[in-house]
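Researcher: Re-running this chain for the archive, since the previous output was lost when a drive failed. Same request as before.
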Amino acid sequence: MTAAVTQLRSALKSRRRTAPTRLQARGRRRGPGPKLLDGGGRPAISPMSPERVAFAGSYAPGTIVIDSSGRRLYLVQSRSTALRYPISVGREGFSWTGRERISRVADWPDWHPPKEMRERDRSLPEKMTGGVRNPLGAKALYLGNSLYRIHGTNSAQSIGRANSSGCFRMMNGHVVDLSRRVGVGTQVVVLKGLPSRVARSTRDDD
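Model: Regenerated structure tokens:
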């Protein structure tokens, strides 16, 4: 092997070690993140139909029921059926249970990471405009006066995982579909897991 080839390989290795990606460079920054990031374009998103499944619960039709352990969102249709969507849920330490009502619905929402989130990750901006690069995706359904939302995503591969900060992520096509079926005032019930009778009925339908 010639000395020139050896030097070239050494230089390339050094470059790979010392030239982090733009995202890595931002993440290593000690100072605060940018004040504003552009979320990108806002294309039209077609609704994507969910599954219709058996659902033997006592929730009123129109109620959203979230099964955190199963990573599924159910929109109750009747005393025996529901529409089922796959979701992502809060990671360990960020999951929650309770009841809220949808207080607002927004298209391609802006994202304002809260101060505590920006303290955990200094690469985050104070604001990111709505768009295809924005982690809130094409729609956001805000839950009461809380910081939590049911929203789309810019990372389809995250669906089905527990990796959010407490919000519930959906595929963009699914959240567009859901937003056409619900509205302000819709009740949202967040459970750790479905009651056994309800869980059995949904399994029987698989």
